[in-house]
Amino acid sequence: MRLCLFDDYRLGVVEGDAVYDVTGALDAHDTGFATPFWVRLCREHETVLPRIEKLRTRAEPKPLTAVTLRAPVLNPSKIVAAASNYGDHVQEMAPRVPDGWMLDFDIFLKAPSALAGPSSTVALPPVGDREVHHEIELAVVIGKEAAHIDEAEAMDYVLGYTGLIDLTVRGSGDRSRRKSYNGFAPVGPWLVTSDEVPNPHDVDLRLWVNEELRQAASTSHLLVSIPAMLAHTSRIMTLLPGDVFATGTPAGVGPVKPADRVVGEVGGIGRLEVNIT
Ligand code: MN
Asked: DSSP letter at 248?
């Protein structure tokens, strides 16, 4: 199932070029920070997804072109992201990273307030002569509270997958600041439930800037696998339903400038098309 959020946070099922409004499958359509319906949907997906499927059969389709897609996640408690998780990206960063530790695999947090939709316009912040780079990534959405889990069971905690562009100010200083400006986490175009992603370690990632192909790789080259990352992270911080986990970016990162159009593609999932101003 392909779940999206559109217009005024309506809940939709995407099939082909159509979206079906299934908001009525929810107990409540509250979008406040304290009790967002989306987080409950993730936590209670085993009962809510069948209700969505049922309602979908009665819902009227709308063309996708007639709606505005939002990020297919809402109020996650955190966005966790992997750093240095593709060998070719680690190699390309080595000459420009003064601190060797930054080349080691690690996890960091990106502020949830950086979330943006899959067709958003991102205004570059004033960062002097520093570059802002694109990083295309496969993102995992958590479906079950995970604390101190084992790698062997970790995939049971995954609700689904989506795409994420991890916009990043290059240079020294803490990642959480350099990657958390408003709009620095475009996500989408929808969440594909894990039953429709046969092998998340065989997903093609592509990213173009103004039609120039900058990044092209497969998640088969992840240095640390998705279950290993989730198990590791769950021993540091409890992963909660609705949390987003960005799995890292391959080589080819580079600067974006005002007026650039950034298109990211995550194989089997969909495309993000972001305008930079
Ligand atoms: Mn990244």
From this structure: -
Domains along the chain with CATH numbers: 2-66 (no CATH), 79-276 (3.90.850.10)
- What pTM does this model have? 0.96
- Spacing, Cα 236 to ligand 1 middle (Å): 19
52 C-alpha to center of ligand 1: Å?
A: 32
Reduced 3-state DSSP string for 96-162:
HCCCHHHHCCEEEEECHHHEECCCCEECCCCCCCCCEECCEEEEEEECCCECCCCHHHHHHHEEEEE
Q: Output phi, psi for 100, to 5 deg.
A: -55, -30
Distance 21 CA to ligand 1 centre (A): 32
Phi, psi of 226 (to 5 degrees): -60, -50
Q: Output the CA 36–ligand 1 centroid distance in Å.
A: 26
Name the band, by pLDDT with cuts 50, 70 and 90, for residue 112.
Answer: very high
